[in-house]
Amino acid sequence: MTASFEPRILVFACNWCSYAGADMAGVSRFQMPPNCRVVRVMCSARIKPDQILAALTRGIDAVVVLGCHPGDCHYAEGNYHTRRRALVLDALLATLGVEKERFQVRWISAAEGAKFAAAIREVIDTVRDLGPNPLGRSHGTQAS
Amino acid sequence: MTARYLDRARLAEACAVLGRNLDVFAPVQRRPGDPPRLELLPAAGNVTLAPRKPLVPLKALFLPDCEEIMTFRRRGGETVVTERPALARDRVVLGALACDVAALALVDRVMLQDPPDPTWRERRERTAIISLACAGEDETCCCASVGVDPLRPNGADAVLSPAGDGWLLESATEKGERIVDALQEVLRAPSAAEIGTARALTSSSRKDSPLAGCDRAWAEVWERVPWQGLAARCLGCGVCAALCPTCHCFEIQDERRGNDGARLRAWDTCAAKQYARMASGENPRAKLEARIRQRFLHKLSYFAERYGVIACVGCGRCAAQCPGATGIEEVARLLALAEADHG
Amino acid sequence: MERRLREIAREFLARPGTLCFLGWEAAPGERGTRPIEIRDAGRADLLVWNRRCHANLAAYLPRFRGSQGSIGIAVKGCDARALRELVRARQIERERLFVVGVPCAGLAGPDGESLARRCHGCRYPEGFAYDATLGPMVTPDLPPRPTDDPDLDAMSPDERLRWSEEELSRCIRCDACRKACYGCFCPECVFEASRPRWISRRDTIAEKLFYHAVRAYHLAGRCVGCDECGRACPAGVRLDVLNRALARHVEELFAFSGAGVAEGAVPPLLAFEPDDPEPYPGGER
Asked: Is the overall model pTM greater than 0.80, yes or no?
């Protein structure tokens, strides 16, 4: 692991709360670091754990899911499902031996621009310290 | 072509000697009790030359599970296509069993037809096969019923025959002779006793399987076979195809990431529901019964009609691994019974 | 018990409106037995019951959707849990089934003698209404898992990762585990989708990890521990270790009794509570 490692982080943000929060951060002059690729979804519950596992098993250094605070979901229940799925995903990743910091769920409302910025910075710093995702090693064709 | 002898204690050395100029593949056991796997040396685990069929058959070294047959990149307005590179080195396989070796010849009938498959052809030409005379692994082995000689495999470049604490090594082709020459520093002359032991080897491979003389047009007879019973317990899992040394169907998939991509060729199996599905969504073999019928008629009938021999080498892997304890031998038996019943 | 099973099957098949009876018959080779679908009462004598009746017959039920007629089925404890789950998931109607409980006291391991690894930690379903039984359907008292079996909970995360990668690298992507699993009944599986395509055919550890991680996730809260996946696997991958470890976590997390154990219990992934715990990193809601 060289000093120049910069983690690649996939961020899912729900349209109604957390993506708006990200916009708010931007308006407040927060510079989005290049580490993150932000994908807007209508609700955090739209995200299939398959997609998160696809990213992690192929070497993305971390995946972050941002949604509305529980109780505030634009679609009433979506983020309750997200929360359950995330809990099971946490357990699965722990079983496989993947560091828990590589998958995080945070609730960010539309007004919480500062919280968004702080969360992003924190995740990048934490994952940078962890190093590259060990699962990314084998992503390529094996010689035969 | 005089016989030479390799002491078991010098097997690792022999692999190292060959490895100077060749890519060496040998059966490796990762954990005790595992089936061996043909791996490129050096590999994690012990090289085990034994009459145990490797989990994935020899054909995988010639038609890989998945390979990039080309890569492409888009630069500016142009697409640059790069063909699969040639093998870096020639190869040798140690310890291949007769069933697997015979299967290569069957797949040759398809792959080397005009125009020949470039991957298959290159690998066949550049790979020497040193087989192991096989005493038979278990009761599922019936290679002797389908014209395979387990002790002197047809198609091998050289044969290792167990004798004493090592093997007699005899070449069968020019390619084999070159391999034996390359190994001279680790070989010695065999004793008369060792030669005697090697010559007296026997195999338990059964000769009485209904697979013998099975090549017929079975399509009509199939309707009289109680195949519903087969279909009822078949899970459509495709383990039979995954492990079959003669299966050679493949699919092509393109993968793209932005401006780069690759074309992959990967194994496919007619047991899979999506196998015959067409772009329109039509699937003539959506039903499991249809897929079972197709699989066995292909192996025992259509292939024979085209090439004069059934596409089965009697290795018994399908019967051993099927969760429903059903192999191609049993199907051959059912076909024969149905034919006999009728008249 | 075998004789009684045959009698029950014979009587069942003699009734009007019955389609078939699913049980086990003797089979050549090391497996010893295999599933059989009997349609004719006269063939009920083919049924066997012994310590090598491993097959989970519930896995064959989803294919009867869309057909008519009642189906008899012999189930061990683990199979009955799977059956209960299938009924809950509306893959088969309970009214169509004639369920015969077979009191299994443990299946044979590969050597024919020892206990099959799936049988450690056996749990029968509670309060299952069988239509007939060959004896009391209660969880047998079986020895605990042998100490040399991989214990993921006892490993450090690093060790677990190494175990996962090494174990799953043995996989040859043959799909047998998925087909053998009672819980994998999706008409189009995520691994069969082509638009978009989720999994690559590339022979890499990444793809194998993806395959088994996704399958484990999809089965979370639904795996009954029957180890048909492990039995079908030709490469000897210890899928049972992975799925059982996840099952334990899920059961602890949500105070869930286990797939198919309690009548009416819903698998954790199909429900939620407003006061569920927080996933990592947790903290304020």
From this structure: yes
